[in-house]
Amino acid sequence: MALVETLARDAWFARCSPALQQLLVAHGHELALGAGQLLFRRGDAEADLCCVLEGALRVGSLRADGREALLARVEPVQWFGEIALIDGQARTHDTVAEGAARVWRVPAARLVPALDAQPQLWREVAQLACVKLRLMFEALEDIALLPLAARLAKRLLLQAQAYGSRSAQPRLRLAQEHLALMLGVSRQSVNKALGELEAQGLLRRHYGEIELLDVAALQRLAQD
User: Fold this and answer.
1) CA distance 146 to 163
2) What CA–CA distance (Å, rounded) separates 179 from 171?
3) Quick check: 147 pLDDT over 80?
4) How far is CA 10 from the centre of its chain?
5) Separation between Cα atoms, residue 64 and residue 66, nearest integer Å
6) Disulfide-capable partner of 74 in 39, 78, 153, 213 (CB 3.0 to 4.6 Å)?
7) What digits encode the pLDDT tens for the residues 42-100?
């Protein structure tokens, strides 16, 4: 019961039918990861569905020339891995533990046959992918239309809400270099934009953390 209550803190899981919730609990197992340990690598063939129980994982890729792309930082209790589960293709990104982490992992080898036996449940899995697809489209539009301050405010709010998975938390464990990678700008640019928002009283910077002081004002800025 404790596991179900923990997983139900995620908005998507809470909306799932009892049948799908039961499958995800019955067929999964807990996995412990150490700092820097890969959960899976871009191009891997496995397609397990996962949920962060504790800690945080970074989703991105490291190019041969040393350039790094950071797509997202996933925290409790976000689900991920549904793309490979749905289309049966290789993993799209590397996923690595930022520090010690615990993950609920549902093997595709067990989950896919169970979903095929109740095909109406596939729609619910697809809804998880659609939430992220909508966010991706919005992010692409923001790059073209919004100034950095608005994009930064929106990213901080998304991270605070675990990309819509939970209600906003006021303190974020988020390094400025990771914010810069997610926004596709330099660390210096992010530092300057954070300083401007801090001067306006919208947030406060701490070592390794960002405290959101005025969520309503950040929301207004993100909508400009």
Assistant:
1) 19
2) 15
3) yes
4) 12
5) 5
6) 78
7) 999 999 999 999 999 999 987 767 677 888 899 999 999 999 999 999 999 999 999 99
